[in-house]
Amino acid sequence: MRIALEYYAILREMAGRNTEELELVVSTPADVYTHLAAKYGFHISQARLRVAVNDSFVDWQHQLEEGDRIVFIPPVAGG
Amino acid sequence: MKLFAMQSEPIEIALLDKGLRDSHCGAVATFAGRVRDHHDGRSVDRLVYEAYTKLAQDQGERIVEDAMQRFDIRHAFSVHRLGELGVGECSIWVGVSAAHRKPALAACEYIIDNIKSQVPIWKKEFFSDGTTQWVNCAACAQLAGNV
After folding, report:
1. Which residues in chain A have Cβ-Cβ distances shorter than 8 Å to B143?
2. Could you give the C-alpha distances from B81 to B10, B22, B35, B72, B85, in angstroms and in order?
3. Is B69 in CB contact (< 8 Å) with chain A?
4. Mutual angle of helices B101-118 and B53-70, in 10-degree steps
């Protein structure tokens, strides 16, 4: 399925881009992260991240749909 | 007025403080977070804040709305600054007003604690020695050139 990614902070630096669209054989955000971690050498384990799909937090086994927009969220540090 | 806002301009604390005034409220509790000149024993020159804007806005508003429900308060709002900030500059402001001090103080603490732990905003430290680090991600990357 076709999905869109947005990258922030340390993941943006590691990926070397703000956004991208990919055509992948995946079902869940966990599948997507496994693929991207291998592609970009992400050193952050999935356990340290949260994930949002279409601007809402979801769990890692959320069933993705065509055109979904995914953001992996590194440990936050606001304030 | 939005319960939570993000902006790149300097936070005008005096103006925000005015927004809390209400003759019904005998207590005003505010918090201002400012950029520190050190982190983990290292000298800091500046910080850069970045947000996943849509979700940060939703989460920030939700937290302040929660506080309005949980505590006996009349007004609450928070402003977070994004972009590059120098030492001493205000990165976040939280203000609460209530009839009485205990709920005002408790709500103020609740809001800042939850914003810091939940809202998708990140900060990158620029140290005086030229190195950089994303806060809370020290163990995340072992890339050459980053500590």
Report:
1. 14, 43
2. 7, 26, 11, 27, 8
3. no
4. 160
Round to whole Å and give the CA distance between B93 and B81: 9
Question: End-to-end alpha-carbon separation of chain A, Å?
Answer: 37
Widest CA span of chain B, in angstroms? 57
B91 closest CA partner among B82, B100, B99:
B82
Tokens of B53: 């804007």
Q: Are A76 and B122 within 8 A, CB to CB? A: yes
Q: Which ipTM did the prediction report?
A: 0.94
Nearest CA in chain A to B56: A55
* Residue A51, beta-bridge partner list: A58, A72
Neighbour-count burial of B111, counting CB atoms closer than 10 A to its CB (0-12 exposed, 13-18 middle, 19+ buried)? buried
The answer to whether the CB of B96 falls within 8 A of the CB of B73 is yes
Residue with tokens 């806002």: B5
Distance (Å, whole) CA B38 – CA A65: 45
Closest approach of chain A CAs to the CA of B43, in angstroms? Answer: 18
Q: Work out the minimum CA distance from A15 to partner chain B, whole angstroms.
A: 12
The tens place of each residue's pLDDT in chain B, 147 residues long, gives 689 999 999 999 999 999 999 999 999 999 999 999 999 899 999 999 999 999 999 999 999 999 999 999 999 999 999 999 999 999 999 999 999 999 999 999 999 999 999 999 999 999 999 999 999 887 665 443 333
